[in-house]
Amino acid sequence: MNLDSEAEELASALGADKTEVKRDLENLVSYSVPLEEAKQSLRRKYGDSDDSSGSEPESKDLADVTPEDSNVTVTGRVLTVGKRSIRYQGADHTIYEGEIADQTGTLSYTAWEDFDLEPGDTIRAGNAGVREWEGNAELNLGESTSVEKREQSLSVPYEIGGGAALIDLEAGDRGAAVEVTVLECERKMIDGRDGETEILSGVLADETARLPFTDWDPHPEIEEGASVRIENTYVREFRGAPSINVSEFSTVEVLDRTVEAAESAPELSIREALDSGGMFDVEVRGDVIAVRDGSGLIERCPECGRIVQNGQCRTHGQVEPVEDLRTKAILDDGTGTVTAILDDELTAEIYGGDVEDAREHARDAMDKEVVADTIREAIVGRSFRVRGTLSIDEYGANLNATAFAEVADDPADRATALLAEVNP
Fold first, then answer.
1. Are 311 and 321 in contact (CB under 8 A)?
2. Helix, strand, coil: what percent of the chain each, to 5?
3. A Gene Ontology molecular-function term (predicted)?
4. Alpha helices, DSSP H only, in 212-280?
5. pLDDT for 382-416, tens place per residue?
6. In principle, which of 91, 208, 278, 321 could form an S-S bond with 167, CB 3.0–4.6 Å?
7. pTM, two decimal places
8. Domain span holding position 11
């Protein structure tokens, strides 16, 4: 896409200043407005209401819509409708988003205008823009889109209304409704887009899983121990795992029943966990094959908690470091590897002492590495079950452990079970 040439051609056709047209076009495209939709918006802005695109684009099944399509016409049934506020060019703008389906598949959509959509509506959207979102096509319904509601409902093999179990939520889901119990809830002050902002954050759970949440417009019904139904949520990725977001447009209702929280985490092979792209609460098991550098007695910045090297924090410069305990254990189950990161409490359990004990140990040996060596002797070559939050980024896969327990089963039994999986 050459915006410079597009802007020059559009400015020439409109008789407008190229610099202004290019600036406006770049602003719209930077906010993921499809190019043709952006150009049509500028035609209206600069006084050319003639639709140079010609007749309405061809109708397509949703499964056939690709990011290469510029504009399409589709007929489908609205599965979910979410509503939230975004900031665009310094002003707040309300958008509507969710999923639409036909008999061939589903697509996510964003509506930049209020088309009065409701879950269950069957609509025909003419001249809908198409953009690429996380590798998939997404419909954009804007000023140049015509939306017609149909009286006859389209039958689709998908659930309508957005109700979802936590285990099924993925980053990018919008308009989701969940029934959960609030396990943890903390009120915080953050530096938001409008200055100092109060939010709620914590952990939600249902019978299937646990997920973190942020309530950007604190609802009084969300409090620790409450069982609630939250409608119109959206899901983002936070530290490599899905996170539920509650907004000013979300509705929260206290339930007359108690939602039971999952006591156990989903137990997966390491490969299955890695393929998920990140999970807030997961359990894996495997053999510790090594303890990485940076384990044992370490030093942290007192301001941000980051690791300090030679008294230097990358953010705060020269600091007086605080000593801490940490273990970075490489876990292997035959399907993949992951680094399990143990905090000071879990490390103290396997080391057999706290920070003060480790400090004395290192002082007597005149070498901090003896603490890491002791940890290696305690866990390398043994099997463990690890539960925690899995995050995956450019630096690798890390499982921040909340539980770390040795597996006491017979190695021969494990070998037999593995062989049975390979040769059923």
1. yes
2. 20, 45, 35
3. DNA binding
4. 270-275
5. 999 999 999 988 888 999 999 999 998 655 665 66
6. 208
7. 0.71
8. 3-45
